[in-house]
Amino acid sequence: MTDRRHADVSKYYDRTIHLIDMIGDASECRSALVIVFEDGAGVMLRDDGQACCESRYMSTDDDLGSLVGERLVRIEVVDIEPEDHDDDYVHERAFLKLQTAEGTPVTICTHNEHNGYYGGFDLTAREISATALDMEMT
């Protein structure tokens, strides 16, 4: 099992959120979190570690829109123990916890369902432009 984290997002701290949403792929799974800031900078957070026999996606029950207009001060990754572990199925999860200066917390869950051989997370942060965002959201 690998567990690589490349998501250095500290350069986005103290910026005001203009837009935040999860975007999906062709199967309509939410596979990335996109944040655009009022200064025009943007970042896409995703788990890029896809391997054979894995299903990776993101979910949240929180209101992402509640962060619009607030200043991002922290993104933290919190691991939790796998559930439903048996010889043929593992469901790993890690939480991306976003915190704003105004105190609004939001938690995104990134999932990796696999056969037990593969696993782990490869969380990455990719700087995006408005053009790239338009292409990703269509």
Average residue pLDDT:
80
Uncertain spans, ≥5 residues at pLDDT below 50? 1-6
Helix content: under 10%
Could you spell the SSE succession in H and E letters? EEEEEEEEEH
Number of domains: 1
The strand count comes to 9
Give, in spatial order, the strands making up the sheet with the most strands: 1-9-4-3-2-6-7-8-5
Largest sheet composition: 9 strands, mixed
> How many angstroms separate the termini?
34 Å
The geometry reads as elongated
Beta-strand residue fraction? over 45%
Oligomer: single chain
Structural class: mainly beta
- Count of helices? 1
What radius of gyration results from the CA coordinates? 15 Å
Could you characterize what this model shows?
The protein is mainly beta. It has one domain (about 5-135). Helices cover about 5% and strands about 55% of the residues. The chain is built from 1 helix and 9 strands, in the order βββββββββα. Strand 3 and strand 4 form a beta hairpin.
